[in-house]
Specification:
By secondary structure, the protein is of the alpha+beta class. It has helices spanning 2-8, 13-22, 30-55, 74-89, 151-154, 223-234, 245-255, 274-287, 318-330, and strands spanning 92-97, 104-105, 113-121, 132-140, 161-169, 173-178, 183-189, 194-199, 210-212, 238-239, 257-261, 291-293, 313-316. The protein is built from 9 helices and 13 strands. The longest helix is centred in the N-terminal third of the chain and has 26 residues, at 30-55. Bound molecules: 2,5-anhydro-1,6-di-O-phosphono-D-mannitol and magnesium ion (MG). It is found in: Cytoplasm.
Length: 332
């Protein structure tokens, strides 16, 4: 099949990025370099992630930190790794991160790009050795380079993304991204230190049989959503919920399914963040032929008004998302 073929002829991520860049002879190559910077940081975070279980027992095999520094949490480490790679790379002027309250101004006014990133999502899963992920969005700044960054460079709707991706640190590590021309997935070959094209041109099934939602909050869902979930049960769909957005999204993207993080009584706008969680996955979903809304409106058209703003998220196979929306409409 296609994926085995791609792997055997060895299309590395670097080669793939280069080939795509050659399709645009006038491109400066900065976006390509930026994607490579992200991939490098990903490899470092992957290494740290694999060691996560060992870090607490490091002393047992002579790995005690000589300075006696406290072990940093992996999500903090990931944030440092990504920010450092983006700073050193030189293409980026500002970073919005889940880990930082304010925008990080990289003081690089010649950088054309703005990044929104969740360096390590699903971090409650780290301690129990369950899949986690990184999510990123790339925007072109709208004000001229050479001048200080402005709020409008940061607060762009998702439909302005020039690229977006996620990394899944799962049984294998995968990087999946789009530049607005389809979605491609790369699997990490640890011993070679390379990502290989393993999932060319990902197309999401139009429908599926998996629904993913934290049903423990059922009683605080709106009535329409409750009815939709009852419908899923009548249909005997499979309930699958890892509690790691990237992992739940990735599975449903490949197999067909819907992921829902709705508004609840406690969180009236949901839990997930528009800028660095929902937008990137919505862009990838649409590029793969799937759908992403807040239950009503397209995620990518939401105009952000604050950095860490939340949004309900209905994302996955188009038919399933449309069906869920129809239940919300009727039962309001
Ligand atoms: P985090 O950014 O604090 O890690 O939270 C985001 C995570 C998502 O990965 C996951 O889908 C969701 O929170 C799970 O939340 P809940 O435990 O409420 O179901
Ligand atoms: Mg997160």
């Amino acid at each position: 099949d296609n994926s085995t073929l791609a792997y055997s002829v060895g299309v590395t991520l670097d080669r793939f990025i280069k080939k795509k860049q050659d399709d645009f002879p006038f491109a400066s190559g900065e976006l390509s370099q930026l994607l490579r910077d992200i991939a490098l940081a990903t490899k470092i975070v992957n290494r740290e992630t694999n060691r996560a279980g060992l870090s607490n027992i490091g002393g047992a095999f002579g790995q005690t930190n000589v300075q006696g520094e406290e072990q940093q949490k992996l999500d903090v480490i990931a944030n440092i790794r990504f920010t450092r790679a983006l700073t050193k790379g030189g293409e980026v002027c500002a970073v919005v991160s889940e880990e930082d309250d304010e925008v990080i101004d990289l003081q690089n006014s010649s950088g054309k790009y703005v990044i929104a990133i969740d360096p390590l999502d699903g971090s409650s899963n780290i301690d129990v050795n369950i899949s986690i992920g990184t999510i990123f969005s790339i925007y072109r700044r709208v004000t001229p380079t050479g001048s200080p960054i402005q709020p409008e460079d940061i607060m762009q709707p998702g439909n302005q993304q020039v690229a977006a991706g996620y990394v899944l640190y799962g049984s294998s590590t995968m990087l999946v991204y789009t530049t607005g021309n389809g979605v491609n997935g790369f699997t990490y070959e640890q011993s070679l230190g390379e990502f290989f094209l393993s999932h060319p041109d990902i197309c999401a099934p139009k429908t599926g049989k998996i629904y993913s939602i934290n049903e423990g909050s059922y009683h605080s869902f709106e009535d329409g959503l409750k009815s939709y979930l009852d419908h899923c049960k009548r249909k005997e769909y499979n309930a699958r919920y890892i509690g790691s957005l990237v992992a739940d999204f990735h599975r449903n993207l490949l197999k067909g399914g819907i992921y829902i993080y709705p508004k609840t009584k406690k969180s009236p706008t949901g839990k997930l963040r528009l800028l660095y969680e929902a937008n990137a996955l919505a862009f990838i979903a649409e590029q793969a032929g799937a759908r992403a809304t807040d239950g009503k409106d397209r995620i990518l058209d939401i105009i952000p008004n604050s950095l860490h703003q939340r949004t309900p998220l209905y994302i996955g196979s188009t038919k399933m998302v449309v069906e869920a929306e129809s239940f919300l409409e009727v039962k309001q």
